[in-house]
Amino acid sequence: MIDLTGTIEPVRAIHGGVVVLMVVGLYVLVARGNLIKKLIGLGVFQTSVYLLYIAPGKIAGGSPPIIADGIVTYSNPLPHVLILTAIVVGVATLALGLALVVRIHEEYGTIEEDEILDRDDPA
Amino acid sequence: MMHREVIPRVVAKLLIPFLLLYALYVQFHGELGPGGGFQAGVIVAAAVILYALIFGLADVKRIVPLRLVEILVPLGVVLYAGVGFAGLAAGGNFLDYFVLDPDPVHGQERGIFWVEVGVLVTVSSTMTAIYYAFAGRGR
Amino acid sequence: MIADHLPALQVAIPLLAAGICAMLRRSVPAWALATATSLVAAAISAWLLARAASGGPISYRLGSWEPPWGIEYRVDEANALLLLLVAGIGAVVMPYARRSVAREIAEESHPWFYASYLLCLTGLLGMSITADAFNVFVFMEVASLSSYVLIALGRDRKALFAAYQYLILGTVGATFFIIGVGFLYVVTGTLNMVDLAARLATVEDVRPVVVGIAFLSVGLGLKLALFPLHYWLPNAYAYAPTVGTAFLAATATKVAIYLLLRFFFTVLGPSFPFAASPIPAIWIALSVAAIILASIAAIHQAGIKRMLAYSSVAQIGYITLGIGIGSEAGLTGAIVHLFNHAVMKGALFLLVGGAILRGGDMNIDALGGLARRMPATFAGIVIAGLSLIGVPGTVGFVGKWLLASAAIEQGQLWLAFAIVGASALAVVYVWRIVEAACFRPPSTEEFAEMPISMLMPAWILTALCIYFGLDTSLTVEVAGRAAALLIGGAAT
After folding, report:
1. For chain B, what is the domain count?
2. Based on CB atoms within 10 Å of each CB, which residue in C273, C303, C367, C368 is the most buried?
């Protein structure tokens, strides 16, 4: 992906980053039993989407999208606006998720998934 | 909290007014440069949270009571929706800013201004409410 | 004049009401506001459906920005029917809510509950009405975040963990959805659905589109609880407060199904050869698995709400089966069954919620004596249960009949057998309720009929179960035209 002898293909590097973040996030989400670690995984997973959207917004040689004399190529501002919304959604999700974890901890005294399931149905 | 630590207390007292001023700058500079209600709201909340960290939750709740915060969270949403209805009342579509002023460009500016105020109110109070909810637990 | 703005008001009024509701400190004003808003929203949606049926699709430009740059709201018969369903269920459930919420939720949380309900209504209506793919995501998250709150307010501590699981899986679903939209956006540069459909037809490199479809399908599959992605659903429905369960079960998954229809047929349909792809085969296989396995799971549940939740997974299987068949008749069946299932499941959850409130227990065994002590409730459960089985004369029959005939039309006789066979499984689990209610010894505790304010809404939905089973003009004809519209693409 990244050729250390000099040439870097930025698009490939970014897409590689997207895939790595996505897979790491999903792995943490599935493999960890700790409810907070799951939320961290969810955050990493969502971050991959931010990158996926923002990267194609940059147009080679384009300036920031503010109208000025002598500039013909502008980068696309729309992905940034979309992802600003997505980030806010992500913050809201994280806050609600953590609030639920706090309440779960108050009720169950643990934030490990398997212990919570054990406490509800003691086998 | 840090009742006997002189330096953090003095620094915080010096810093908080400037934090709030900076938040206002970011807020009202949003149409011209990087900034806007989201960023400004977070800075306002940071000022409140800094005060809480230094002087304690009880003190900050005397200045910014939970009751006020819980009113402000929906108030920003109502303000935002209100701008939408103002567009309707002025004869345009919902969220139409062009009709808010005889000059359409100025109308856009006016619409964005009030929407950003709504965002500031909701974001700053939401962040504060989240802090209150977590900091008030387990005591 | 105001009539031109109704598409925006459909979403804006619940949003504004949610904000005001959260500022109210008292239970009764908050409930009154939520009820009034639901009624207004239902009236608006009925008007929109009538307008869309007579005058064709309505387009509304938010902020007067031209599509495809601005966000467009677009109402045609397909989503107008859904708007009516969502707002109508809200309007029926809310009068029931006052007594029910007072019993199940702590007094100080009532305004927050109603505010969350209104936000959820806003989100679901917004998801249905908007023609902008990213706007769909925003409304999806508005609806999801508020529904997590609705579930977490349940009495049992298990509600918290159910809400957490739904939060994780729901967010993954929404994120998959938005990744899929991202791929479509990268190849076309547009987010407006009509524009997307037009531009996708000219795309030469279809690989990103295929990847996008895969993400979209999995994301929406999670949201609509397609087997085997239904893991979050049973617990979420079982432990949420009754009002939350009835509202979400009748609406939330249905809106996700509508989005799937919209994306598969309107946006991708004109350019993507679905019939030649393996997608229909996968959908049919998963749907049949859902119908049979979830029905069997429902038979083995001890809790009555869990049983109904598994039955929902099975019924969603019927709906996705119609999507898998993919013909116009299949889609008509899917849309009709979507509408009908919402009505009967809404009725069942309201009735069963009332029974649980009186009996105080979620287990089926605890329903003993229900038939004698709560005859009106019991009669409603029997009618809605027969409808769930698909007895002729009820709504369940209409949907299953259309689906089975669509399958036979396509030469897939075995699907028709699967539909009929799974109905036999439904007989088993509905019978369990009836048996417990009629023949089990009543519990020692004295309990009487539900109050009239709860019985009325439940019986309105139960009556609709029969009405739409006999008079199919609204559902089948509108659904037929909606299916033609979806398949015909957005070329209007």
Report:
1. 1
2. C367
Closest by Cβ to C182, choosing from A53, A89, A107: A53
Confirm whether B1 is domain-assigned.
no
C-alpha distances (whole Å) from C476 to each of C298, C334, C398, C472 are: 29, 10, 9, 5
How many folded domains does chain A comprise? 1
The domain of C431 spans 274-492
CATH number of the CATH domain containing A54: 1.10.287.3510
For B34, list phi and psi in degrees, rounded to 5.
-60, 135
The interface predicted TM-score of the complex, written ipTM, equals 0.89
Q: Total structural domains in chain C?
A: 1
Do the chains contact at A98 and B137, CB–CB below 8 Å?
no
In a domain, C58, yes or no: no
Query: How close B94 gets to chain C, by Cα (Å)?
Result: 6
Whether residue B133 lies within 8 A of chain C, CB to CB, comes out as: no
Question: Looking at the domain assignment, is residue C340 inside a domain?
Answer: yes
Residue C415: inside a domain: yes
pLDDT tens digits, residue range C141-185?
999 999 999 999 888 888 899 999 999 999 999 999 999 999 888
Residue C228, H or E segment:
none
Domain span holding position A98: 10-120
Which CB contacts under 8 angstroms, 24+ apart, belong to C196-203?
C196/C133, C196/C267, C197/C266, C197/C267, C197/C268, C197/C269, C197/C270, C197/C271, C197/C489, C197/C490, C197/C491, C198/C490, C200/C267, C200/C268, C200/C270, C200/C271, C200/C272, C201/C270, C201/C271, C203/C271
